[in-house]
Amino acid sequence: MSKLVRRFLLGNLWDFGKNESWFSDMALKGLHLQSIGNWFVTFEKGKPKKTKYRIEILEEGPSQEQFELYKEYGWDLVANKQIFYVFSSPEEVNAPELQTDPMELGFTFRMIDKQLKKNMISISILFLTFLFSQFQLFFHDEPYLFLIKRHAFTIIMIVVPYIYVFIEIIRGYIAVKKTKDSLLMGIPINHKRNWKLSYLFSAILHVYLTALIGAVLITPFYTAIRRELYTYKPVQDTPVISIYDIETVPVYDYSHFIDYDWSLTSPVQYFISESGYLDSEMQDDFSSAYLKTSIQTRYYELTFKGMAEGLINDLIHRYYREYHYEEKLTEIKNNKFDRLYAASGEGKNIVFASFDNKVIHIKYSGKAELDYIISLIEKKHNL
Amino acid sequence: MPYEGGPMTEAMYYVLLALVHPNHGYQLMNEIEEVSKGRVKMGPGTMYGVLTRLQKDKLIVVVNDDGRRKTYSITEDGRRALKGEYERLKSMVDDGKIIKEDRYE
Fold this sequence. Notes:
Chain A starts with a strand and ends with a helix. Helices cover about 40% and strands about 25% of the residues of chain A. Chain A has helices at about 15-30, 65-70, 100-135, 145, 150-155, 160-185, 195-230, 245, 305-320, 370-380, and strands at about 5-10, 30-35, 40-45, 50-55, 75-80, 85-90, 250-260, 270-280, 290-300, 330, 340-345, 350-355, 360-365.
């Protein structure tokens, strides 16, 4: 049993000339075409030999006589996939060409071109419909909050295989159209066309798409690991402002909730909610001996700094309106922050701030003043 | 695109011509060479391509298919087309006679 070697099918089969010269170059290295699959081309290892290859389209099941006739002309069938039949002939035999009339071959290509055009139109419509349904997700009113989600990447990347199929169909169509046009002008197929550049391009595309698909598959696992690492951190060790940073008096009945998340666009994300009670002046009716204090922080570090502004707008859109604050949100001029918005009143403070690639949103109720909270952010992040 | 008159390729013309008598691929090749007195050397790929196309255009039909080989024959439409092309070529040749007659000689 001789050794078989597999190579990725980089060219489009409709590109006769490029594939034929590729097979010939392989034969010169001792790799002789054996079969063509969906993804791989199999070669049999042997002695280097100058070999000519010809691809023929035989739409209707060819008769035995046809193969015999080809053989008599010096051409042996070596591989077949769908309507593509590949024949080979040793160079020294000097076999006469199978195709002697470019115009006639051009008519065959014209028929195929028509069929492909029909397919292309229906597939394009399907593809665009699919794309639209996918990307509608982006057209909601808080696009940045969507983009920083972990599964956003997966959702976007689901499109990748479809793009791949679409590209292949277009490549095939372009190859057929170009061949048809030149054949009908009487120019025969160039059996020695250079395949290297277009195969390189194709290889890069394949590696890129495969890497993207790989990333989609790995992301959930990676996220799980990262999440595990961060969940049990004490609040003080996180980049957010803790209730203990704010309050100078003891906090009773303290409880907290911490949630960490990771995504490609925002590798560090915290949602932290803390609450407790502070000593307070006793009221005449003995109520409110303790003052409730609570803080909720959302903190994001972004991969792209450019997303910060969009994210802060989305956060305001979602959380400022959600809580129905009566106090007006105003922009505060502060050269330590890229953007700083705040609203305060009735023991409540709400802050939206961005600096560098970081965005933070704080909702605090308690005794502390707004300016003090802002100064804590500055201190914690060395602004 | 079905054939609607007009110039034929050499391959098409000779295949139709050779199918005036029903024939199969192998003999067809020889017949074409014979009819053209060895001038036309058609590749088998081209010949089978023409056969497929002519069949689709209903200028020829398969009269026998025993699994090993197919025998083709020209149809009435095929005959008409061939005749039309013959007339066209003939008048082309006739018109070209001036080459022989005068100053070009």
